[in-house]
Amino acid sequence: GNVAGTSVGGAAALWLAAHYAVWSAGAVLAAASLLCCAALLFVAKPRAEEQTGFAWRNLAELARDVWSVARSRAGWLTLFLLALPVGSGGAPQLVAAIAGDWNADADTVALARGVFGGLLALAGSLLGGYLSDWIERRTAVIIYGIGLAACATAMALAPHTPGNFSLFVCAYSFIN
What we know:
Order of helices and strands: HHHHHHHHH
Shape: flat
Radius of gyration: 20 Å
Strand content: under 5%
């Protein structure tokens, strides 16, 4: 939901900014954000005794959990892998900046990164989760990271056309 929602929301903002006044994109996204926050009105509020020291207890528990993982060799390797930028999926944040190099207009970016990219990210997340149940999680992180690197490399080497731009942005979103 996070990846797909970010893609679709970004596409909506880009499309609005490209076709209407820039302030309208901000106003629509602000209204959508407030609407999402309205769901908090239906969340039960914790009792007062549960709130006292709540954050500190959670932080202390998190620190103990991270330390218990970091003490083992396998845990240390896992934490190291999670800290590596490979597989972090940061490239989609740059597609609007490089779109001009590919002769891709704002509508192409909104469709490739937002609409199709969001749907493919959703499908890829479901498939990746399913596949991760069959293989070891650390191995999955490495495989998906290599897939993202291969996709980004292929994109860099491919002819810079709007069609290739859309293809590789969608493929990257799916793998991510």
